[in-house]
Design goal:
The chain has 194 residues and is mainly β. The chain contains no helices and 17 strands. It comes from Geodermatophilus normandii.
Length: 194
């Protein structure tokens, strides 16, 4: 999987964070309390103020985001976003839910869904999330440190529509979440699902 690093200055924020700074090659992002991304399902609300730093993504194409999983408050989250508009997007990464770190994805095609799996052993380590878009699907993979990627989700996504993609974070339940993003890269889509 050949990728090319994206500069942090190469994207535009969907919702400005409380603070943003660069420390060496890393991007530090302070999330606003109450920030989130969700549409309707089960909870009845719409949130569209997660902090996503997005740039156009080739079709087909892939995006990777690496960050430190050093958060532990309910619904703290970080990863990547693919977005067409307010009703058509995907977020994937790690999130604290029920006092455990979970890897998962939310796919929103008018309404959001959510899938997670526990990865408590990833806490405090560097996580990389990869989303590969081809045709009418996005394949999400994730890994910790230099371990092999594991499949997280194969999700439907509209074919032929422009998409922006990049890193994101949100803090639905608290103030003071500072995320350290290590890398943002793009490249060709995965050659195969397996």
């Amino acid at each position: 999987m050949t990728t090319e690093s994206m500069p942090w200055s190469g994207g535009t924020w969907t919702a400005p964070p409380v603070a943003v700074s660069e420390e060496g090659p890393d991007l530090l992002v302070t999330a606003a309390e109450g920030s989130d991304a969700w549409r309707h399902t089960a909870y009845g609300f719409v949130h569209d103020d997660a902090h996503a730093l997005l740039a156009p993504l080739a079709d087909p194409g892939a995006v990777e985001v690496s960050f430190d999983a050093t958060f532990d408050q309910q619904f703290d989250q970080a990863g990547l976003v693919l977005r067409t508009d307010a009703e058509t997007w995907l977020k994937a990464g790690v999130e604290v839910s029920d006092r455990a770190l979970q890897v998962g994805a939310v796919v929103t095609l008018g309404r959001s869904d959510w899938s997670v799996a526990p990865v408590q052993e990833w806490a405090g380590r560097q996580v990389t999330v990869r989303a590969s878009r081809t045709g009418d699907a996005v394949t999400v993979r994730a890994r910790v440190d230099d371990e092999p990627f594991r499949l997280v989700r194969v999700a439907p996504f509209p074919a032929g529509v422009p998409v922006t993609a990049g890193p994101y974070c949100a803090a639905p339940t608290r103030a003071g979440l500072v995320m350290r993003f290590r890398r943002w890269a793009t490249g060709p889509a995965d050659a195969a699902l397996h």
